[in-house]
Design brief:
It is built from 20 helices and 18 strands. By secondary structure, it is α/β, with parallel strands linked by helices. The protein has a domain at about 450-490. The strands form five sheets. Strands 1, 2, 3, 4, 5, 8, 11, 14, 17 and 18 form a ten-stranded mixed sheet that branches. Strands 6-7 form a two-stranded antiparallel sheet. Strands 9-10 form a two-stranded antiparallel ribbon. Helix 5 (about 95-110) runs parallel beside helix 6 (about 140-150), helix 14 runs parallel beside helix 19 (about 500-510) and helix 19 runs parallel beside helix 20 (about 530-540). The protein is globular, with a radius of gyration of 23 Å. The two termini are about 30 Å apart. Bound molecules: uridine-5'-diphosphate. Uridine-5'-diphosphate (UDP) binds near residues 69, 161, 411, 412 and 413. Uridine-5'-diphosphate binds near residues 85 and 415.
């Protein structure tokens, strides 16, 4: 098995089975067998079970595909909870709120991440009838979940990740937008504002919009949309939060509107989910789907990619049945939608192999070509499964008759891309040489091998070059010894202008029924207007949300973002 040293370290730390004394008792081969056997056991025929167990094993062991972390950690083990993403409802009463706190703790114990909309909670200061007192408002209850998350720490394997969402027309919106400006507060949450079409229209026209108390529907105030928009952009410019969640865009793509309206996403935004809905993810490693053409030029191996998509959909659909949940509501909804999230990793490496710059029209075209191909193959597979087993039980006749309500997503792949030793999700490389934050502040060094190979082959490698790249923010752009073609091909996140980041996210979103996890990187000198420009473009291009990060604006991220040397 071709695992890098860094991959082995990650596996040892988090995924390989350990005995009670904490000694590792499983090797990577046994780990992949454990997962493959557990997932294939969802099939009722024994011949199919055996066949698929072998196929799944090879699929993972070759690093062509990896499922999300909870599947790697829990498949074939007592916890048996296999999904990374959850959304839990937050009702406007004490019993409902604390039921959700409990469900959150149980999900975090299994390595899942949870998203919440706090939009149904009555605003701060509203009357509480049973006590005659005053409600403490959404932000105070976020703090309760935050404290409980601190106490759980996901059994030492993974820190509990949460997403908190509030509608832009909630009366407490200004407090919410500021709730993370003090970086010591609600540290276990990412936050996003649910942005409505009405609000965006008011921004364009420089108009006002209504604030509505959710518990009685009363209009309790009005705000100037541009002031709120500026405030969000200013805070995101200052420290990366809040993000935006385009809630009406998301609901236009809802295949089960009589069940629910979407109100929230999972922690990294790639899954917009109904209440108690979950999603198990898996990502195809695109770097492993390249071959040499007859003329010796590298090209996408479409045949192999088609086979991988088929197998990945079978795998993830089997995960739906193999999954075990800590509370019954989750199990019921999981069976109702049979939602899966097939995505990619290694996209930036694929482009480099094909010698295509990330920030180019050709780069966007390749994204669309790859993703539309994956979508077509995935839909075909899910439709074929529906012919045998029926469509997902919550099917309302909207869209094609598939086995799964949703098929596609792009996850951050923060950990699994390290196991596969490739670039994460659809993101560009962070640097040509960099350090990655794993857990407890451990830093692992990564060097882009492909760059060194090309530089040696093309004759521009020198001993001093690596050091110059580190000094140049991990980038080779602007270094005179690197030929222009290769400066373009070896693009890093900071080299790429914000508008290209947004356009790339939108190019993928076109073919994806769930959403895309992506960070829009901005240079340190970017302005608040640059942030607003990215917001407007992403809304216009049909993205379901946007997260920006201005270089150097924050030192500690909630999730596993790369850190610079
Ligand atoms: N997630 C989480 N805790 C973490 C990292 C991720 O709960 O520390 C959840 C979160 O919902 C995120 C999803 O897992 O959106 C997928 O993240 P990623 O692809 O980085 O996970 P991996 O499978 O690579 O560990």
């Amino acid at each position: 098995m071709n695992l890098s040293d860094n991959a082995l370290k990650v596996l040892e730390k988090r995924y390989l089975g350990k005995d009670e004394a904490g000694v590792v008792r499983e090797n990577p081969e046994q780990m992949f067998r454990r997962i493959a056997d557990a997932i294939a056991s969802s099939n009722s025929q024994s011949s199919e079970r055996e066949f698929l167990a072998e196929e799944y094993y090879r699929f993972m062991a070759s690093l062509d595909f990896l499922p999300n972390s909870p599947t790697i950690m829990n498949a074939g083990r007592p916890l048996g909870q296999l999904s990374a993403c959850f959304v839990l409802p937050v009702g406007d009463s004490m019993p409902e709120i604390f039921d959700t706190v409990k469900a959150t703790a149980l999900i975090h114990q299994t390595g899942g991440g949870t998203g919440f909309s706090f939009s149904r909670l009555r605003p701060k200061g509203a009357v509480v009838r049973s006590t005659g007192g005053q409600a403490s408002g959404p932000v105070s209850f976020m703090k309760v979940i935050n404290a409980s998350t601190d106490a759980i720490k996901q059994g030492g394997t993974r820190r509990g990740a949460n997403m908190g969402i509030l509608r832009v027309d909630h009366p407490d919106i200004l407090e919410f937008i500021d709730c993370k400006m003090d970086l010591t507060q609600v540290t276990n949450f990412n936050i996003s504002v649910a942005i409505t079409d009405v609000f965006m229209q008011a921004v364009k026209e420089d108009g006002e919009y209504d604030l509505i108390a959710p518990h009685n529907g009363e209009v309790v105030g009005r705000l100037r949309a541009r002031e709120v928009f500026d405030k969000i952009a200013h805070n995101a410019w200052a420290n990366g939060e809040p993000g935006l969640f385009f809630i009406d865009t998301a609901n236009r793509a809802n295949p089960t509107p009589s069940r629910w309206t979407y109100e929230a996403t999972n922690p990294c935004g790639e899954q917009v989910l109904g209440p108690y809905e979950s999603c198990n993810l898996g990502s195809i490693n695109l770097e492993r789907h390249v071959r040499s053409s007859a003329t010796g030029k590298p090209e996408v191996d479409w045949e192999r990619l088609g086979r991988s998509v088929y197998l990945a959909v079978r795998f993830l659909d089997n995960v739906v049945d193999a999954n075990r949940f800590p509370i019954p509501e989750l199990a019921a909804v999981n069976q109702g939608t049979r939602r899966i999230g097939l995505g990619i990793m290694g996209f930036a490496r694929l482009l480099m192999r094909l010698e295509i710059p990330y920030d180019s029209e050709e780069g966007l075209e390749m994204a669309e070509k790859v993703m539309s191909f994956i979508r077509d193959e995935a839909e075909r597979t899910s439709q074929d499964l529906a012919k045998v087993h029926g469509p997902f039980p919550y099917y309302e006749g909207i869209g094609t008759r598939k086995r799964n309500s949703h098929l596609l997503t792009i996850a951050p792949t923060g950990t699994i891309s390290m196991i596969a030793d490739t670039s994460s999700g659809c993101e560009p490389e962070f640097s040509i040489i960099w350090y990655k934050n794993v857990m407890d502040g451990t830093h692992l060094p990564y060097t882009l091998e492909m760059f060194e190979i090309v530089a040696r082959r093309e004759g521009f490698w020198s001993d001093g070059l690596a050091e110059k790249i580190v000094q140049n923010h991990g980038s080779c752009r602007g270094l005179s010894e690197v030929p222009e073609k290769w400066q373009k091909v070896f693009a890093t996140a900071h080299d790429i202008a914000p508008r290209w980041h947004v356009r790339m996210q939108a190019a993928f979103q076109k073919y994806i029924d769930a959403a895309v996890s992506k960070t829009i990187n901005l240079p340190q000198e970017a302005t608040v207007e640059d942030v607003e420009d990215a917001y407007l473009l992403s809304f216009e291009l049909g993205c379901k949300g946007i997260t920006v990060y201005r270089d150097g604006s924050r030192h500690n991220q909630v999730l596993n973002l790369g850190t610079n040397a």
